[in-house]
Amino acid sequence: MGICILSRDQLKQTLEMNQVIKGVEEVYQLKSQDKTEVWPHVAYDFIPEEGVMDIKSGYVKGVQLHGLKMLNSFPHNSGKGLPTFNGMMMVFDSNTGIPLGVMDASYITCMRTGAAGAIGAKMLAKEDSHNLLIVGSGNQAAYQLAATLLLLPQINTVRVANPRNVDEARAFVSGIVDRLKGEFGIKVSTNIRFEVAENLKEAVENSDVIITVTRSRSPLIEKSWVKKGTHFSCVGADMKGKQEIDPEIFRGARIFVDDKPQCIEVGELEIPVKKGVVTESDISGEIGDLLEGKVKGRTSNEEITIYDTTGIALLDLITAKVAIDLAKEKNLGTFIEI
């Protein structure tokens, strides 16, 4: 049938968060089984804080897929009436080298990143976690929230903080119920309360699960604010110098990552490791090891847990393959020969 070409709008019609979560968990487990390879990460700052490009690539031996994703993040595009987050995804059959699909990478990334942060919370948060805090109200926040509500149905309070622009947080909260239903097909229970966290310190002190998804390059959350038993899914730090939480939060915490070398190099772990707060030996394991039952997760309700997810191309590859298969079923996309 040729190569499947899928636009952003077609991907939105095709993918469902539950399916993406399933695929992401499968790939994490394949990684733990040594059936994947993560290839070197390439990143470039065109103008600091104004234009960033990164390339992530890899090979999923378990399902014979390889490929790459190039993403561009240009925040100031919003003032030009242009999308701030753009990219292309290319997927190949590893048995033959034949290309299977080319598609928009931004939506694939948003969906699999939302799944990743939520999986960390599912595996490491306390069972009686009811209070969720999302730090950041940009594009990715809704995907984190959608996936987390699916995996942690006991959540009854959601707070959203934007330390640099509280008006954006207010706009996000005011429209989130309709957005969850319209974009993700999630009908939010009337028992869930959504709030704007105007005081970040107070919000942190009253949260069981905290997901950070910002572009910050300095800590937003101080250790003294964090109560015992809190879980962090750190999503925003995915390039050198990015940092969302106080490095001291890592001291004594139970730490998991998606890819150990990458997280130490460019993740939330980068600064704590460089400062000597923790070492590689303090990492309890990769999330796939936890899903496979090779290591223990949380060991007590008093323990602080951290999941550092930098994002790996393996997740994009499996999500893209899911999209291609569903597109064929739904007669979506364009199929071409090259």
Characterize the structure shown.
This protein has 338 residues and is of the alpha/beta class. The chain has 2 domains: 3-109 and 314-336, ornithine cyclodeaminase, domain 1, CATH 3.30.1780.10; 125-310, NAD(P)-binding Rossmann-like Domain (Rossmann fold). Helices cover 34% and strands 27% of the residues. The protein has 10 helices and 18 strands. It has helices at residues 8-14, 17-32, 105-124, 141-151, 166-184, 200-205, 260-266, 270-274, 287-291, 313-330; strands at 3-6, 36-38, 42-47, 51-60, 65-73, 85-93, 99-104, 131-135, 157-161, 193-196, 209-212, 217-221, 231-234, 243-245, 254-257, 283-286, 305-308, 334-336. The strands form 3 sheets. Strands 1, 2, 3, 4, 5, 6, 7 and 18 form an 8-stranded mixed β-sheet that branches. An 8-stranded parallel β-sheet has the order 10-9-8-11-13-17-15-16. Helix 3 packs across helix 4 and helix 3 crosses helix 10 (313-330). The longest helix has 20 residues, at 105-124. The mean pLDDT is 95.
In short:
The protein has 10 helices and 18 strands.
List the helices and strands and how they pair.
Elements: E1 3-6, H1 8-14, H2 17-32, E2 36-38, E3 42-47, E4 51-60, E5 65-73, E6 85-93, E7 99-104, H3 105-124, E8 131-135, H4 141-151, E9 157-161, H5 166-184, E10 193-196, H6 200-205, E11 209-212, E12 217-221, E13 231-234, E14 243-245, E15 254-257, H7 260-266, H8 270-274, E16 283-286, H9 287-291, E17 305-308, H10 313-330, E18 334-336
Parallel strand pairs: 1-7, 8-9, 8-11, 9-10, 11-13, 12-14, 13-17, 15-16, 15-17
Antiparallel strand pairs: 1-18, 2-4, 3-4, 4-5, 5-6, 6-7
Helix pairs in contact: 2-3, 2-10, 3-4, 3-10
